[in-house]
Amino acid sequence: MFAMIMNQIHELAKTLPPPRKQNTACDACRSRKVKCNRLPGEDKCQNYPCTHFVQQATSEKKRSAAARRPRNISTSSRIVDLSVISLSLRNLHRCRRLTCPSFSSSPVSASSSPIAEHNTPPWFKAAFGPWNSGRLQSYGGLNMQSTTPTLLHHLFAPESDSAFMFKSRSPGYATWGDMASKLEDEAFRAEFALDLVEVYFQIVHTRLPLLNPLQFRARLNLQATQQRPVIAKQDEPLHPALIATVLAWGAKFSEHPLLVADRERNGGQSLLAKALINRTRELAESLKVHRIPNTNHVVISLLIEPLQCQDPRLDNGFHGFWLTSGIRNLLGLQINHKSVMADIKDPEARGTMIFAWWMACLSDAFSSFYYRRKPMLDDDDYDIDFYTADQNTQEATDPTAPSPREQLEFLGYYRAAHALARISRTIARQLWRPSTDQDGIPLDSVLSYISDLSKWRDAHLSKVGVPPNLEANWDFVSAVSACASDAQYHVTWVALFFAMDDFGIRDDTFTSSNINQMETAKRRVMEEALQASLRIAALAGVLTSNGYLKLDPAVMHVSCINAGTLLARLGRPEVFQCIKALEQYSYAYEETKEHAREISREYDVALQKGPNNFHQMASVINPSSRAFHAEAMSVEALTNGNGNGKHHGNTYMSI
């Protein structure tokens, strides 16, 4: 269809008359029929001041507004309308370039580039102050001054009465189970909301510590009273979209009787939790969270992204919109500048923004590699150091206890994760290029990736991965954090294997030595990917046996899917650990159940036909999966201290 339209335009262009001689006189001189006194090399006419450009832009704006009124117009008239708009923009830009006083003093030019003044940017106070500046619109009866009870009334309203656009299959509370009608009571809504908030801080906050628990609870204000005057930061009302995001997260994992009844009615999935996710997204969009740089908007964006469905193949799945919005907000606030970060005097706000930056930076790199997209950030887009905890900031609940951010820093997580993110970002940029899709991955790049990943393992894995001996009293945070860090490294090998299988390796010399080098590189990546998949399967088995993946906020799912897919295509029985892990994941992320089914189907085909569905890497896949000298790592091997791998030569062996 697109080609047909372009052909029609091309044929139409052939019938148009040749362009007439360009009229160089300005509009004012032409209208007065006088000679345009323009000096050579200058844009301004000497007869009249340059304000005629502004007048012309105003008249052109009126004409373009009239052209936008509903009427039947042809394709050619649409082209003329666009040219009028373009002419207005060019004239305004020309006048601005000539430092026209009437333009430079206009309020439009003063606000069009808020980041121009580096020392005292006009947005700084608004960005780090209260969110309720009155600039944002209301939506469905909600606005920035709405009380928390009013927000809860809309969030928990039945589908037929909700102000939100989301529509479910049937109206009323009955869709959400037998207990949902209790949400009509304001006191019950408040009690239910408090339960969801506590679930959020127990499960999600431990992995994504972007909020201050005590401040959030103090500012939640579930009393149905008018908004209190702001006298201190902890008394400022919370952003409505932030409250909605926290409640939606809590509904994912809560075992409140209302949600239990909802899941029992709807095949194990909570339709109320799904409705809250949709309403949270709609509320955030309506309040311009994705458009206006603000610290609250940064946090909201970064929390919404992993809240949603994580399957990029689905319409409501991962498309990186909210992650990109969070990064744009961070860049708009210039958080990527060390000098700006140093100007944030409040330690709590500074710590949150530093953590938010690194969360966005790492997520951008890893997701770009996993889903073969162009990273939004590059290595030279920021000059701030890797995350360091502020020693002056202490957790209010226990002054002697480190905060979750500090605990992660003590483990060296951010230094290691940043180093791995830079490798992932480099690979992602290579995979995104059209030339790679056409010709393959350059051999030099493949060898560089192998070297970089091997160096990373030697420098960091022992510090941030699963230790040789798992302690029996490991809690949820310690176990999932270590397993996720461990798996994040290993899945890089698996993703690199699949990329090489899809694109192949390119070498323009075609020498016999390089051909041998290509096959050696392919075998090396194959061995690493297989051992990495076995490692991930064993880690997933540990977490599944403890029921932890039912409580994981979308951290291990990519590793389980990639490892499970490779093991299934090889016909390896260890795949069932990944399948069980994804089935447990479906408690909160419904789409992982379909991933588990797909992997199971791949395994059945491999049992019948042998290792199956390989392309460019088929030359290093033996006819029988049993030909691989890889030792399966069981849950028992990991818990007995035998799961930590060491590298010997070209084979990654378990000991």
TrEMBL record:
One Gene Ontology molecular-function label: DNA binding
Keywords, comma-separated and alphabetical: Metal-binding, Nucleus
Transmembrane segments: none
Domain Xylanolytic transcriptional activator regulatory: 198-453
GO biological process: DNA-templated transcription
Coiled coil: none
Domain of life the protein comes from: Eukaryota
Database matches in SUPFAM superfamilies: Zn2/Cys6 DNA-binding domain (SSF57701)
Protein name from the UniProt record: Unplaced genomic scaffold CY34scaffold_18, whole genome shotgun sequence
Species for this entry: Suillus luteus UH-Slu-Lm8-n1
